[in-house]
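Much of what follows relies on a compact textual record of a protein's fold. Here is one such record, which you should read through line by line:
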Amino acid sequence: MKPIVSTSVSEGQYSRERFVEQIEQAHRSRHCLKLHAGGSTVFLDFVNELWIDPDRILPGLLQPDLHGGLLMIEDVPAQTIRDQLAVHGRPLAEFWWELVYNCFDANSAARFNLFYGCRRDDVVHLSRWPNFSRVTVNPAALRMAALFTARPTSVFLASKILEVPMLEVERFYAASVASGFVERVNRQAQAEPQAPRVHRQQGLIKSLMNHLSRAYSARSA
């Protein structure tokens, strides 16, 4: 099957943004892809939600300053990679983490935040931790994971509490959303309004007022 793109990195034609767009397009179409670079191969199965990157080349492909080599992206039938994925396949959530975390920088932050609906005032609860032995993280990632798991916290406040640059917290948050690890606590409250609860003290006051009203009516009769 013909490659859907063949990109020469050495000639300066490599575009990380274009690469990400092609990945997202394949995901929407539920295709399977084979990425070739430097003698290594990455398989992506968007049907069964699995992937393989045995040589861990994806983080390098997502850097904006690549030099030398050839990148090819090939659309392949699912059955041609089924056996490999059945034995060695990893959850696709790890791929989405790598994709967003390694592409997220000052230039792309607005795009990713818009695409995944991320805001600094979001109150974040981390329902699952990324597999730190399998994905790219920075030294502050463990502290961010611990905070967002122990106590739902806004992105803005997490940056202040942990003394971590805002861009790094936004990066962690966007990758967590892309991987399906996040619950937005304040969004849930807005999306599912509940009837106001009557405080116990309010109920007692109301009962007392009713009792006094009845007593006054009986006297006046």
